[in-house]
Structure formats: structure tokens, C-alpha cells
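Journal club side-thread
Mid-discussion, someone asked how the predicted structure for our own chain would compare to the paper's figures. Pasting it here so we can look after the session.
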Amino acid sequence: KSTIFGFFRYTLLTQALSITVPGRIGEISMIYFYKKEKIHLGKGTALFLLDKSINLGFLCILGLVGLMPFVGIQDFLKIVGLLAIGGTIVLFFLFSKRGRDFLKVRLLKKHSANFQGFGNTLRSFLQKQKMALALDLLLTVIRWMLAAFILQRLFTSFGTEVPMATILVTNAIVFLVSLVPLTVQGIGLRETAAVVLYGFQGVPAAATASAYLSYLIIMTIYTVGLATILAKGDFRGKVEKD
């Protein structure tokens, strides 16, 4: 029983935190905001992982398509094999009783009671909420296509024409590279990867760096600025109420 505006605000706050926290730890704060909506920790964690899995799965498929021209068939098959093994291990721990019991006993221990409802939520969505998952996937595709469109406009403004499909696929690889927790939100690492990948496709390094840095500045101003305005409005409303 929540509003779209409420979750929009939580998403902005989460992204703003992600900009200031190393790696992508800030994104996990969404689970805290779920609790503010009276969504139990176990259910909130399951929802968070489902959403991130859909996003990551979509990007992995695009990333594999994008990697094919750059690697040999043997290396490509090795990458696919490693992803398949990793995916199988994750599915084992999330969906099998033995895997979840192992996590409860070895990892969560005395905190496992806080995550009640995790397994039931996962099964419920996969069995009964397929339309909700399909909508999540559709919105994920739209979000990444919008990002590719903005970057295409930025490339054009710097005198370089890059097909939107190329940007979409390359963006997926850049995002996967930025998952390595070396910098805050992958900043620096992401731009370097973009320069290298677009360079293989004949795009000038200056144009790529300018487009991605401009995109970073735009999204930072948008995210942090709007999140600050919404947070101030929420704080002001609480003060007036008190």
C-alpha cells in the first residue's frame, strides 16, 4: 500500500547515497526504505535481489553480445561457462532448501530470524507474479535505452555519431566492468573502460571521455539535487506536523 512517488523518492535517495559510498553498497539502503513502508526485512531483501537480478541478467546478455567481436570463440565460451557456473551457485543458495539452510547456519546464524519470508517471497513472485517480473524487465530495458539515447545526444554534441544500439551494448559492458568495487560507483573505472571499448570501434577517446563525463555530471546533479529537495520537503513536513 505505497505510492509511486514514495518509491521514486527512495530510489533517488538510494542513488544519491551510492554516489558517496564506495562500490555499490549504497544501493542496499533501499532495503532500509522498504522497512519504512512496513515491508519485512526478508521480503524486502527478496524484492531487492529480484530487481537487481533482472537488471544484471539483462546487462549480462547484452554484455556477452558486445564482447563477441573483441574476444575469440574459446575465450567467449570460457566467459559464458564462468557466468553459468556463477549463476548456478547463486540459484542454489537462493532457491534450494539446502542452500538456504547453509546460509542460515553458516552466514546469518542468530540473525536468520530477521529474514523470514525471504524464500516464500522469491517463490511467490516466480510462480504467481510473472507479470510483475515482466514489467520490471520492460522498465529495465526502457531505462537503459533512455540512458543510451542521452549518451547518443552527447556524442553528437561533441561531433561524433555513434549508433544507439552500439551505445546500448557497450554501456552494458562498461556497467559490468564498473561492478568491480575499486572506486565510488565505478567512477573513473567506468570512463576508462568506455574509452577503451569505443576506441576499438573507432570512436575518438576525447569524444568518449567528454560524453561520459558530461553524462556523469548531469546524472549527479539530477540525482543529488532532486533527492536533496525531496528530503528537505519530507523533513519540513515532519517539523510542521510536530
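Post-session note: The chain is about 80% helix and 0% strand.
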